[in-house]
Design a protein that fits this description.
six-stranded mixed β-sheet; Nuclear transport factor 2 family protein; NTF2-like_dom_sf; SnoaL-like; 3 helices
């Protein structure tokens, strides 16, 4: 499980969507819970691919650094520091070149040797 998480985060940091998809189950459920933007939930690799491709375009660079990792039987929790630089203006307040710095937690669930559920909290 730890190897899947490491591979996912490394691909995420490289903005390598294909690498991210390699470790995801076909029936992936992804949920992003943000204290500013609410909750986004998607199901399936096709929807994840679309979201990941759109997300990559938003950033000039992005990096998740693992602070801690807790493994369960078929689950894991990862605390991360997140740093990113916007590639485009998102709003009047969030402009290209601005840096985002967040701390978050990601919860992973595994099935058939792949990541089947990923929930990000930030």
């Amino acid at each position: 499980m730890e190897e899947l998480i490491d591979a996912y985060i490394a691909a995420y940091n490289r903005m390598d969507v294909a690498g991210m998809l390699d470790v995801l189950h076909d029936d992936i459920t992804f949920e992003n819970v943000s204290n500013t933007d609410g909750v986004l939930t998607i199901h399936g690799k096709a929807a994840f691919t679309e979201l990941a491709c759109r997300s990559v375009e938003l950033f000039a660079e992005r990096m998740q650094l693992v602070r801690s990792l807790v493994l369960g039987t078929d689950t894991a929790a990862v605390e991360v520091d997140y740093h990113a630089t916007l590639a485009h203006d998102l709003s009047d307040e969030k402009k290209a070149g601005d840096t985002l710095v967040l701390r978050g937690v990601s919860f992973f669930r595994f099935k058939d040797g792949k990541i089947s559920q990923l929930t990000d909290y930030s």
